[in-house]
Amino acid sequence: MNELEIIQYRQMKGLAVFFDTVETRTPHFHLDWELLWLLKNPLSVTCGQSRFVMEPGQMVLFGPNEPHEFHKVDQSATFLCLQVSPELFPNLPSVSIDGKAPHQYLNEQEQQEIKRGLRSIAEAYFRRKSNYDLYCTGICCLIFHQLLSALPTHILTPEEAACIDKRNLRLQRLIRFVDENYMHKIRLSDFAAQENCSMSYLSHFIKDTMNQTFQEYVASVRFNCACKLIAAGGKQMLEVCMESGFSDYRYFCREFQRQYNMTPEKYSQFKKKSQLEASQVRHSLHSSERFYTVEESLSLLSESLFD
């Protein structure tokens, strides 16, 4: 798995809108701008060395090439997401956003203007009426003009941009290394030898980039694998434990309980009761999240959570 997420703009060039209900999403990044509007339940967000909890109604903006991750606080969190290719703003220089949360820099009226713009983009995007792409692009440009005028940013020098590229390539290799080895005994020293780096340097790199230790990240991948296997059904818990890379079944059960506030068996029962179709839910080594059809998205737009 390469956690450089390549956004596929299947519907219109350079812009995508979708609803997502997420339990967890491990560190990832993409080449695109991403604006989230949280609609239901708090969401824990990690971006570099910063970790904060978003509350419903708040927004967050991630710039291109910026690693970030999501975790539910108590229940799965639902947000509206606008993803925009930098190609939509060809004359905008490469910038780094020093402030992620618009509510810290915009007054209530300005925030409501952006939310109305997001909602109107989403409605036009899902209804796909004549020339909707022109409308979406126009409103999107207005939103980003307002955000980038208010949020603290700085233009990246060529040296800073090259450093970010180098960092993200190493992050991709680290994620790939864990994906290929999590089911066995895995050591940071092996990755250090592969990278020709010291253990100390890589430990600091992982902490700075992911805001967690190497073993904490490996554990998160293993737990995501376990949840994926449990949701798929058909396996005994001991099989789930071993295939997820845990060598001690009692440790697996204890840590699963600590992580999810329920035993693996309870989690299995919970998933069986779920009425969501498998095609709408993505369980992977890096995420557990639900995406919505066009019809469901239009229904969400009419719900009171937007009021």
Head-to-tail CA distance between termini = 38 Å
Proportion of strand residues: 15-25%
Low-confidence stretches: 275-279
Mean pLDDT across the residues is 90
Provide structural commentary.
- The protein is α+β, with helices and mostly antiparallel strands and 307 residues long.
- Strands 1, 2, 3, 4, 5, 6, 7, 8, 11 and 12 form a ten-stranded mixed β-sheet that branches. Strands 9-10 form a two-stranded antiparallel sheet.
- The protein is built from ten helices and twelve strands.
- Helix 1 runs antiparallel to helix 2 and helix 1 runs antiparallel to helix 10.
- The chain has helices at residues 108-127, 132-150, 158-181, 188-195, 199-210, 214-232, 237-243, 249-260, 264-273, 294-301; strands at residues 4-5, 15-30, 33-40, 43-47, 50-54, 59-62, 68-72, 77-84, 95-97, 153-155, 281-283, 287-291.
- Strand 4 and strand 5 (50-54) form a beta hairpin.
Q: What's the quick description here?
A:
The protein is of the alpha+beta class. It contains ten helices and twelve strands. The longest helix is centred in the middle third of the chain and has 24 residues, at 158-181.
Outline the fold blueprint:
Elements: E1 4-5, E2 15-30, E3 33-40, E4 43-47, E5 50-54, E6 59-62, E7 68-72, E8 77-84, E9 95-97, H1 108-127, H2 132-150, E10 153-155, H3 158-181, H4 188-195, H5 199-210, H6 214-232, H7 237-243, H8 249-260, H9 264-273, E11 281-283, E12 287-291, H10 294-301
